[in-house]
Each structure stands twice: as C-alpha cells, then as structure tokens.
Specification:
The protein has 4 helices and 22 strands. It is mostly beta strands.
Length: 367
C-alpha cells in the first residue's frame, strides 16, 4: 500500500499545493459518525504554508478521503534538534454537519419533524439545516444532496437543537444506513449522500465473500470485546403526563437474567405509536456491545477499496478464540509512516463510539 499524496484545496476549490514527503498520516473513516485525520510534516518542506484553517485536504484524487483543516500545531523535537514538526488535524468532510444544529421551524410545534423512508429523513435534516435552510446565513453553498433513492423503511423522527452530525449518526445506526460527504473537485461541490454497505459474508452466494481469519495470517493484533455493562434489553418508555397518569409503553421482551431493564424519557412523543417507536429506537442504542478490531495485511488476500470497503458486512474468524463473527465494517483507519503502512479495521461498534457514549448508557452495536 503506497502512501498517497496530500492535495491542499481552498474552499473555492483551487489547488493550493501537493505534499508527498510527509512524516506520517493517519486518516480514519467511519460509517455512521464523523472521522478524522492527523498529518505530521517538517514545516520547512514545500507547501506547508497552505495547511491553514478552513482549507481542504484530499488523499490523492479520492474524493471519499477528504477532510477540512481545523487544527494547526507546531512542535520542536524533544532532543532539541532543529526539526520543527507541523501537526495538522481535522474532521473528515462529514464534519461540516457538526457545524449545524437542528433549529425548529418557526411555524412548527417546537421540533423539526419528518416522516418517510429513512434515507429521505436523513437527507431532509441535512437539506433543512445545511444545504438549503430558510436562513441563508446557515447555508453551505458548495453542499449538494445526491438523488434520494428512498432506501430504508418508513419511519418518523423529530429533533430540536440537536447537533446535525449526531442526528445523522442516530438515525443512520438505527436504519443501518451510513452517510458521507465527498469532494467533487471537477464539479466544485461537496456531495452529501446516504450509503448502504454490501453483504460479503461467508453465508451469502451473491457476491464473492470476504473472510478475514487468523488462520490465513491476514489479521494482526486482534482485539475482541463483548460488553453488557450499562446495556439494556427491555425499556419502559415514558410519554406525556404527570407521574400518576403518564403513559408507559414496554419495548423489548427478554426475561430472566437476560432481562436488563431501563427507563426512557420519551415525553415528546405525541401518541402511543410514536412512544413505542421512540422507545424502540432508544433500546437499539442501548444494545450490548460486540466489536472485533484488528489490523489487516494489505492486499492479502483481499484488496482494500475493491474487495471490501467501509460499510460492508464481512466475516471475521479467530480459531484461537473460537470466534466467527459476521459484522459490518464501521471504521477504517489508514496509517502511513516511516516504519510501514497499515490498515486498522473495526467490526461492530467502533471503540470511539463506545467511549463517547459509555457515560450516557447509549451503546450502539452492529452485530
């Protein structure tokens, strides 16, 4: 896996420079949430002056691997040498959605609510608060929304003053639909779209299966986690009303030691049907964690970006642990450094999401 060049692009889509001889680069893509990147380079090298806040970076010519610079840091070598390292960080392009919140319409009931296919719902919130809001000062003029294919089941979601990227993550994980913002340099635009991964597991026969296994020596440094800490399998969803006449609906059906109960405040639900829907959504977020994280040997035997990619569901096996797991690739980290290049793959629930939500008891699992 060759290290890609880093192209630096202005918000007006002008190419400001290209860097090939950096010291290290880590680029993390996530299926449901915003990824990030970190670039380290000697500040005395060419084109480092273009690495400024608000400029975009793109790995080679791949618009799916682009980010926006939001952090610039200078560091001197700890040995006192003359090496002056520039550290550049930022989110992937999905991070532009983190810059907006759900502002309820003035003629609504205090919420921005939408009913329809889950893909349509996700695109509605981006359009209403990022691509085409009524307040023109909130609009990102370069952002366009890809054609809606109406994927996912009919659903209803509503929010008020929530962060837009958190909303996309929440709806997407429930719907098993990812999302991304890609860079189209030719069209000079940023494209928001919803993504549906492929089923590449060993049990299907439609597409060539992808099976990672310690037996094949294509898995390095495996790390497997199953956790029921703070998980819930049954929820009591509380709707409108005071403590004595408040409507309560039960979601989930586990029993015995497998029954882990919790309460969900769904007081914004307008009726019993919506209360059950909201309770079911919250219960899905509280499911037990199952994640398998490892590094893979690049292009042995599967080619990253061709045979498998972010969002695909594949099979992973560890004979030593007696583990076979069909799960979605929810995170991919590309690492390019002097000691060698590698790819880290996370199945199931990404560890950053686990850490992010552990204090709020909202584990998000994909099994």
């Amino acid at each position: 896996m060759d290290a890609p060049s880093v192209r630096i692009i202005s918000p007006a889509f002008d190419l400001l420079g290209e860097i090939r001889n950096y010291e290290s680069l880590q680029f993390t893509r996530r299926f449901y949430s915003v990824g990030e990147f970190e670039l380290r380079i000697n500040i005395n090298k060419a084109n480092t002056d273009a690495l400024q806040n608000g400029n975009l970076i793109m790995l080679g010519k791949d618009g799916k691997k682009a980010g926006i610079i939001r952090h610039r840091e200078n560091e001197i070598d700890e040995n006192g040498d003359s090496t002056d390292t520039l550290i550049i960080k930022g989110p992937t392009l999905k991070g532009i959605c983190s810059q907006r919140i759900i502002v309820p319409p003035v003629d609504g009931n205090g919420y921005d609510s939408f009913t329809g296919p889950q893909e349509t719902i996700m695109k509605h919130f981006v359009d209403a608060h990022c691509a085409g809001p009524t307040d023109s000062s909130r609009k990102i003029p370069q952002l366009v929304i890809a054609e809606d294919q109406g994927r996912g089941v009919a659903d209803q979601w509503r929010f008020r003053f929530d962060n837009l990227s958190d909303v996309e993550e929440q709806v997407g994980q429930y719907a098993k639909l990812g999302w991304d913002v890609t860079l189209d340099t030719g069209g000079k635009q940023l494209i928001f779209d919803v993504i549906q991964g492929r089923n590449l597991t060993a049990g299907q026969d439609t597409l060539p299966p992808v099976i990672f296994s310690t037996e094949f020596s294509d898995i390095k440094t495996p790390h497997f986690i199953q956790s029921w800490l703070n998980a819930a399998t049954v929820g009591y969803a509380g709707g409108q009303g005071d403590e004595t006449d408040r409507l309560i609906q039960t979601v989930g059906s586990a029993s015995g030691l497998d029954r882990m109960e919790t309460f969900f405040d769904c007081s914004d639900a307008e009726n019993a049907a919506e209360l059950i829907s909201k309770g079911t959504q919250k219960l899905a977020e509280s499911a037990p964690v199952k994640t398998f994280e490892f590094s893979v040997v690049h292009d042995h035997p599967f080619v990253y970006g061709t045979d498998y990619d972010l969002g695909d569901t594949v099979t992973a096996r560890s004979k030593r642990w007696g583990l076979t797991m069909d799960a979605q690739i929810v995170e991919l980290k590309e690492i390019y450094e002097a000691g060698g290049n590698s790819i880290e793959v996370t199945f199931g629930t990404s560890i950053p999401s686990l850490r992010k939500y552990i204090n709020h008891k909202t584990y998000k699992a994909v099994n």
